[in-house]
Amino acid sequence: MSSWFTNVQLGFDMATSLTIVGAAITWAVRQKRQAEAEKVRGINQQVRSTSLQKVQHVLIEMEDRFSVLIDESQKFENMIDHRVKTVDGEVDYTNLNSAMKTNSDFLTNAIDRLGNIREEVGSFYESIQVRRYSLIPLLDAIDDGDKYIGVFQKNIDEVGEAYNRVSSGNVRLLKELEKVVTSINVEYGDELKDLEEEQLHALIKQVSEDEKVMNSIKSIIFDEDYFDWVQRFVAEGKEQDFLDKVVRPSKVEDHDLCTAVIINFILSLLRKQHELISQVLNTASHTVMKARIECKDILISLSAISHKLVMDNNPESLNSVIEKYETEAYFGRNTKIR
């Protein structure tokens, strides 16, 4: 009986010991896992903190560049927008035309200011492009970093496109248009509105036979970068044909269409050349505004990323924060200049 009791007691002691040992092992494993988790959390927090510091540093730098861009863009936008109005749904260029007629330096100043804007947008773009190499690896190291990178890269690409629009679509066109207008004025006069029909036809023929002027005209007409503006001289419904059969082929495929567009352009050069330039200046002003907003999107995105890095446990998505920051209550993407 004593032996049986001893065996049972021994069994209980062994079971108890195994339980204690098992509990100890479980506790030890749990502690190790918790320590590892704490270590990972600590590393993540350190990475987030480092990322936040870098994002804030880049944001401050880009804010300074944006401020310079705003100063330049406002000089140009104000000199154009204040002289253009809409009357009964039609754009009225009278005041802008008058400014060019009465001030021989007006167009030169406008082109110079547009060139300054191009340089500032280009500088903004180059700066944020370079910062990718320090920002993206940091963003990639945190949770949902790919989302941050996607938004950031998209905004950079849009600034690059805005720079191309200002450069190729506006500055070059204005310079080429100024050149052909000057040639027309020197040879044939300034805005010849009161000519008889026969005189006008004779003048159009004379211009079309002037190799120097025609080379300048064709340089504008055949440049696809200018198509958005040139298409106003194309018959309605023939815009795509003009692109496919005149502009893009190595040789003109539709000579009748090409001739009709050139005649329309020459006619406008003779009758309303200042308004043609005003149209381009007005388009350029809208392009500058869009470029300014694209650059502002970079600042808004960096601000939203900063918010997400600070508010680690905030369930609000990055896109939701960006949309919130775009509103009038925050940064007023489409309503506030700065």
Taken from the alpha-carbon principal axes, the silhouette is: elongated
Gap between N and C termini: 95 Å
Structural class: mainly alpha
Rg computed from alpha carbons, rounded to a whole number of angstroms: 34 Å
So how many helices?
11
Helix content: over 70%
Work out the number of β strands: 2
The major β-sheet equals: 2 strands, antiparallel
Query: Helix and strand string, N-terminal first?
Result: HEEHHHHHHHHHH
Percentage of residues in DSSP E strands: under 5%
In which order are the strands of the major sheet placed? 1-2
The unreliable regions are 38-43
Describe the structure.
This protein is mainly alpha-helical and 338 residues long. The protein has a domain at 52-191 and 272-325. The protein has helices spanning 2-81, 94-102, 106-140, 145-188, 197-208, 211-221, 227-230, 239-247, 255-271, 273-310, 318-325, and strands at residues 85-87, 90-92. It has a two-stranded antiparallel ribbon with strand order 1-2. β1 (85-87) and β2 form a beta hairpin.
